[in-house]
Amino acid sequence: MSERSDLQGRHIVLGLTGGIACYKSAELVRLLTKAGATVQVVMTEAAEAFITPVTMQALSGRAVVTSQWDAREPNNMAHINLGREADAVIVAPASADFIAKLAQGRADELLSLLCLARPRERCPLLVAPAMNREMWSHPATQRNVATLVADGTLILGPGCGDQACGEVGDGRMLEPAELLDDLIAFFQPKLLTGRRLLITAGPTFEPIDPVRGITNHSSGKMGFALARAAAEAGADVTLVAGPVHLPTPRGVKRVNVMTAQQMYEAVVPHASAYEVFIATAAVADWRPANLSEHKIKKEGKKLAPTFELTENPDILAAVAALPKPPYCVGFAAESENLLEHARAKLIRKRIPLIIGNLGPATFGRDDNALLVVDAQAHHALPADGQPVDKLTLARVLMQELAQRLQAVQA
Ligand code: CTP
Fold first, then answer.
1. What's 271's domain CATH number?
2. CB–CB of 16/44 below 8 Å?
3. Residue 169 β-bridge partners
C-alpha cells in the first residue's frame, strides 16, 4: 500500500527520542516519503545516541534539526517554524521520559518545545511509545499517557511482543508499516464514527474430501479494502473472511471461516447488532451433499466419481430478511449484462443497494470499476468507468454509504 500516494502534499515532523526503536524510524521515513509526504526529522540528544542524524538526513532529504539554538533558522525560532509548517507531528519512538515531559508541558529542548508551541487546532500530535514493559505499565507512565490523551494527543500503540531487553510484553513501538497505516487513517475523514459494520470477504471453500474442495477465484481484496476504508472512516468493523492470505487491516476484528455454512453462522445470528452489512464474499452457491471422510482414491476406479450437490444458504438474503436488518449492501459479480443482473439481485434479495462488477475482470486484481445500483438509479464508480485501485474505490464507497445512511435515518 505504501506505493500509493496517500500522504501526497502532507508535511510531517517526525520526532525521535532516546530508544532502541530509533532504528525503525529510519524505515518509517522511507515509508512516509514513498507515500508522498515531506518529512522533517527532529532528534533529541538521547536519540542521537541510537541513530545518527546523517542516516535520517539521507533518508528524508532534509537536514535534521536537533537544537533550539540552531542558528540556520533566519528568525532563530525553529520551535515555532517547524510546528507552523507541519500537517502533523509524530513522535516515534517516544520514550517514557519524553512522554512525562509532554504531560507536564515542559520544554527544555527543541522537540518538546515545538510540541508545546505548535498550533494545536491545525497541527495534531501523534505519539508512538517505545519502552520496556515495566516502564510502560508503571502507574506514572499510565498517568502521563492519560494526560496526553485528555490533552488531545493520539497514542499509537504500543505493540506487544519481544523487547530488546529480552522481556516479552506491552511497550514495543509499532512497526513502521503500522505507523504509516495509522497516520494515513488519521487523515481520512471520520464519516462513519461509531457506526458498526459487518463485512464478508473472499471465497468459500466447500470440501469434497479431506484434501479437495470447490472454491473460486475471489481474492478478498475488495472486501478487505472496504474493511480498511470503513475503519479509517471511524467505524467499528468486523470482517468475516473466507480462506485468503491477506493481512487484517488495522483496527478491524477478523473472523476466519472456510465454508458457506460457517460464514452463515458467523454472520446471520449477529447481524442485527450492526448498522450495515456489506456482502462482498463470493459464496459458493452449492456444496457437495456428502463429505467423504477419507481421500477419494483413483486406484481401482474405471469411472470418474460423480457428486451430488446441495444448495448453500443465501447469507445476504437471510440477513435482509431479519426482523431488524442492518442496511444491506450486496455485490454482484457477473460476466455480462451487469446492470440487468445487479438490479434483479437487488429485488430478489430485497436489499437497498447492490454494487455490480465484472468478476473475470476484477478477481485477484488490485483495481476495479463498479456500478452502484439502487431501486431507482445507477451510476458508474469511478464516473469514467476506468478501473482504479480498490482502496480508492472503497473510500469513495464509504462516502456514498455515509450519505445513504444519513438519508435513511433522516
Ligand atoms: N451471497 C450470499 N450468500 C450466498 C450467495 C451470495 O451472501 N449463498 C451474496 C454475495 O456475497 C453477494 C450477493 O449475494 O453480495 C450476490 O452474489 P452472487 O454470487 O453474485 O449472486 P448469486 O445470488 O449467487 O446469484 P448467481 O450465482 O445466479 O449470479
1. 3.40.50.10300
2. yes
3. 161
Ligand 1 lining (C-beta closer than 6 Å): 200, 260, 279, 281, 283, 285, 312, 314-316, 330-333, 345
Lookup: cell for 128: 508512538
Which set of grid coordinates corresponds to residue 325?
436488518
Which of 187, 207, 231 is the C-terminal boundary of a domain? 187
CA 384 to chain centroid: 27
What pLDDT does residue 321 have? 98
269 vs 313: CA distance, rounded Å: 13
**Dihedral (CA of 50, 51, 53, 54) sign:** positive
Ligand 1 centre distance from Cα of residue 333 (Å): 8
Q: Which CATH number belongs to the domain containing residue 149 in this structure?
A: 3.40.50.1950
Q: Cα separation of 124 and 233, whole Å?
A: 17
Q: What is the pLDDT of residue 342?
A: 96
Count of Cβ atoms closer than 10 Å to residue 86 Cβ: 24
DSSP label at residue 282? B
pTM summary value: 0.93
Contact 46, 94 (CB under 8 A): no
CA–CA separation, 167 and 133 (whole Å): 8
Report strand pairing: 212-214 vs 309-311.
Answer: unpaired
Low-confidence ranges of the chain (pLDDT < 50): 1-2
- Residue 63 has what pLDDT? 95
Q: Where are the alpha helices (DSSP H) in 308-375?
A: 315-320, 338-348, 359-362
Residue 243 Cα, ligand 1 centroid: separation in angstroms? 17
Output helix, strand, coil percentages for the chain, rounded to the nearest 5: 35, 25, 40
Asked if 200 and 49 touch (Cβ cutoff 8 Å), the reply is: no
pLDDT at 102: 98
Q: What's the confidence (pLDDT) of residue 80?
A: 84
Distance 196 CA to ligand 1 centre (A): 22
The tally of CA atoms less than 13 A away on the side-chain side of residue 146 is 7
Residue 367: CB atoms within 10 A of its CB come to 15
Domain end call among 151, 166, 187: 187
Sheet of 276-279, strands arranged across: 253-256, 236-241, 196-201, 276-279, 327-334, 353-358, 370-373, 378-381
> How much is the pLDDT for 226?
98
Residue of 205, 215, 345, 363 to test ligand 1 pocket, by largest number of atoms within 8 Å of CB: 345
Residue 1 lies in a domain: no
Please enumerate in sequence order all residues whose Cβ is within 8 A of that of 43, keeping only pairs 6 or more positions apart, or say none.
15, 16, 51, 53, 56, 64, 65, 66, 111
